[in-house]
RNA pseudouridylate synthase (Alloscardovia omnicolens F0580), 258 residues
Amino acid sequence: MQRAHAFVTDEPDIPFDLPVLYEDEHIIVVDKPHFLPTMPRGMWYKSTALMRLRDIFGEDDIVPAHRLDRLTAGIVVFVRDVKARGKYQLLFQNKKARKVYECLAPMSPICTPRYGTVRRDNPSAPFPLERRSHIVKVHHILQAFEEPGEVNAHTRIEVSGNQPADVVRAGYRAYTLYPSTGKTHQLRVHMNALGLPILGDDFYPVMRKRDDTDFTHPLQLVARILEFIDPYSHRTMRFESRYPLDVSGQSFSDSSRK
């Protein structure tokens, strides 16, 4: 039986579909839209990917194998077989799933981060680079932050090969991000620390209050590719998100523009 969420009495409907890209007896793979939470949290219950899938398939045992931030779009794997949960969740906990993200951020010279390190492949070129730092996320504080300490967050950042003309004209650039760790807000924190906050980010560099029913100006961050070896079939599984990076409709007067 499904249990009612103790804290939710009413919540806005999130008016975006949740495409199912793949399903078998063990997993369901979806292309999560921007603004839709992966699972119930805070005010969100029915308007979450998890509860939508349980309703669509009529299966109360479905659980996520990993998570995406509510504001990030892209590929998420859910496990429908109770006996299979451990194997799929361990794929992500043990970093055996390959993740590739894409984002839009300013076309600006990078800044020197206050904490952590930056290592370039070519010292004379700004990208590609390896960004390492110690990221902390405190409960009840929305923003994550960097501080001195042992490295727990590692991201490789490259300039994407395809640069749409409208993005360039707006003063932005497409970046491809390869996280090898999964700290909360890691990509957003790492890009912001370089002076390249992701377009549409309401958290970095400063918090901006957004109405819960405002679904305009999505965060331009997409979990584009997810690849892993299925623990049962031993086949290489590869999924790619359909969501485009888009500067149309974005507000360029906000503080994320450089």
